[in-house]
Specification:
Elements: H1 3-20, H2 23-26, E1 27-31, E2 37-39, E3 44-49, E4 55-59, E5 62-73, E6 82-89, E7 97-103, E8 112-118, E9 127-129, E10 140-146, E11 150-155, E12 158-164, E13 180-187, E14 207-223, E15 226-227, H3 245-257, E16 259-262
Antiparallel strand pairs: 1-4, 2-3, 3-14, 4-13, 5-10, 5-14, 6-7, 6-13, 7-8, 8-9, 9-16, 10-11, 11-12, 14-15
Bound molecules: 2-acetamido-2-deoxy-beta-D-glucopyranose.
């Protein structure tokens, strides 16, 4: 091979590796004493859980707005009692947070995808869904689009939940605190599966969840008090993205057929009146 083509080949590999994201560059495994592993030259990350400990990682970068994708393959078989959390969060006592949590189940019974939004330390905005596929059979893409107008949760490109900015009626919206991606696999058999009635079967441990194709290319990276998006670049269409009619129809389809809990309709829980954002059309 000539030296020119060798350089080209190196360049090609570098571009490919970057396009797909590389966990060695993108995240730090922060806990679990070796139970979190980056393998396959940085293309794959696995978290595991056994009786002694779970594990977790976090993104190296912090973001202030972004469209962030990750592919996850959840704990297969009997995953009852386990929770795989994947979320954005800031720090401090008045933190913001945007959550996906996957609540495991007995073999053949459906996972619950639990979502929540915290702004300035206040959450209580749960929506829960079943999925329209088996999330343990293959990788699926879970995305958070966070811009100044709204937060859109999507699964394989289908929006499942939208949390709009209703600051105009006094509802705080996450927009000032940079957030990091966090993920963890842990034991929550005191509440996760059928309200805590089904316990983790430790004879099936270690439990394992896998991650690939992390994509934060469409996110505004926050460092040293500055956003990478400050100059008004027209190349960030997601910063003002709204749902088109096809996506709105998909969202309605999910909410009609797969939503199993919505805080906005829980009048028993909010007997003093539903949260303000729930009264908006
Ligand atoms: C587990 O399966 C049961 C029975 O189908 C279901 O009621 C429950 O919502 C499922 N998910 C969890 C996490 O409990």
């Amino acid at each position: 091979m000539g030296s020119k083509s060798f350089v080209l080949m190196l360049l090609f590999h570098f571009v490919l590796a970057n396009a797909a994201g590389n966990f060695f560059q993108d995240v730090d495994v922060t806990w679990g004493d070796g139970r979190g592993k980056i393998i396959d030259s940085g293309r794959l990350l696995t978290l595991s859980l056994d009786k002694a400990s779970g594990s977790g990682f976090q993104s190296r970068r912090e973001y202030l707005f972004g469209k962030i994708d990750m592919q996850l393959k959840l704990v297969p078989g009997n995953s009852a009692g386990t929770v795989t959390a994947y979320y954005l969060s800031s720090k401090g006592s008045t933190w913001d947070e945007i959550d996906f949590e996957f609540l495991g189940n007995l073999s053949g019974d459906p996972y619950i995808l639990h979502t929540n939004v915290y702004s300035q330390g206040k959450g209580n905005r749960e929506q829960q869904f079943y999925l329209w596929f088996d999330p343990t059979a293959d990788f699926h893409t879970y995305s958070i689009l966070w811009n100044p107008q709204q937060i859109i949760f999507s699964v394989d490109g289908t929006p499942i939940r939208v949390f709009k900015n209703y600051e105009s009626i006094g509802v705080p919206f996450p927009k000032n605190q940079p957030m990091r991606i966090y993920s963890s696999l842990w034991n929550a058999d005191d509440w996760a599966t059928r309200g805590g009635r089904v316990k983790t079967d430790w004879s099936k441990a270690p439990f394992m969840a896998s991650y690939r194709n992390f994509n934060d290319k469409n996110a505004c990276v926050w460092s040293n008090g500055r956003s990478s998006c400050t100059s008004s670049k027209p190349k960030n269409p997601w910063l003002s993205q709204d749902l088109d009619t096809t996506s709105q129809d998909r969202l309605k389809w999910v909410q009609k057929n797969y939503m199993i809990y919505n805080y906005c309709t829980d009048t028993k829980r909010f007997s003093q009146g539903l949260p303000r954002e729930c009264t908006m059309p």
